[in-house]
């Protein structure tokens, strides 16, 4: 088995360098990198930050002015006849956004770029909220009704905006499904490994990854996932409705307790973050590009603004107006990065592991152990450390599992753009489960297919390069919908509002 894994790992050895090239382009060319200041900005960063800034001005900074309205929409009780409620859609999107990247992504960004990377995460998230709004509104405008569900998202609005060509919808669907399949092994690996780590904390003994315990846990995860995934989008949301609030609240409370126990280090945290982002040697030296790139790159991997990969959940909502779900999509970015990622950053920065005397040894640790080592520094005492580490590992496990469910569910929605019959959808679900199981087997075999997992970085940037231009194509329709929403004159939203004739669902609703 090890030979098979190593062969697969070798086949995908090109993925990491290709991903890095696309993320860094054109800073990887001397003629560009030698340009003062501008040479630090890759095309990806310019595209993401530039789009966020542009859209923020065009929508009147609705990520701020309509934030309170979004909270009211989430807490409003509604009877839903088709699809899921706006709150359920928000929680489903959070199941994807709030993932392992909120812990290991932040830790990795600080390890490479220092605390200043966290500041650029905040900046990318603030403007990313505007991009998420645009995506969410487009998903709602062009959603379609299928039985008692709504389906939509990038493959659907992409097809409608680019001439309603069948092949475009199919291509975008395949692109997302391949992206999800490349991320699923990591999530399967993370779930089973975190369960094993929790068992070790409870028993105080080391459990071999090829033991009967890991095989039993792996089998249980696959069976449970199959039961949920084959139940469709509504069954998935029943689970995410319960898991997301629990894991978010549990993580927030645990980290807040750590901060209170180390209150004297809070001023140091802000000095390190702002100092790392703005010190002169960072701005005018090569380090600035590293700090900024890590912040934007890891911020994107966490909140996914600009990718279009969360738009399936936005489309699934039975919103009263397309802009409602756009507002909630922007709040989702806020929760993910400004709240959850910042809390992770507090733990890592305040622990001083990243710049202490043992910084080199800490940097050599794997992703999650870097974070747990930081926890150990902040919680002197064996019992306290064990308890906090267990709770954080439990949160990490739920982060990974909700991501796994979300990727399978969103793959199913994307597959509807190709074929809507039940047999084809079940095939997609089955392949997704098999791919997740592959990640679990990697853990049992004691292997980490880093080259294969680098596909998540590659998938992120490829989808950005396709999705953001499509959002620009549809921007005029979002802006018209936004103007109608802000006017709030009681008239229903229809195709006529945005100057189109193909918003079928909204036209039918207005006629009732």
What are the defining features of this structure?
512 residues; mainly alpha; two-stranded antiparallel ribbon; 26 helices; 2 strands; 76% helix
Shape designation: globular
Count of beta strands: 2
Number of distinct helices:
26
Structural class: mainly alpha
Biggest β-sheet description: 2 strands, antiparallel
Gyration radius, rounded: 22 Å
Q: Could you tell me the mean pLDDT?
A: 83
User: Low-confidence parts, pLDDT < 50 over ≥5 residues?
Assistant: 280-287
Distance between the termini: 60 Å
Largest sheet, order of strands side by side? 1-2
Percent of sequence in beta strands: under 5%
Tell me roughly what share of residues is in helical segments: over 70%
Could you state the order of secondary-structure elements as H and E?
HHHHHHHHHEEHHHHHHHHHHHHHHHHH
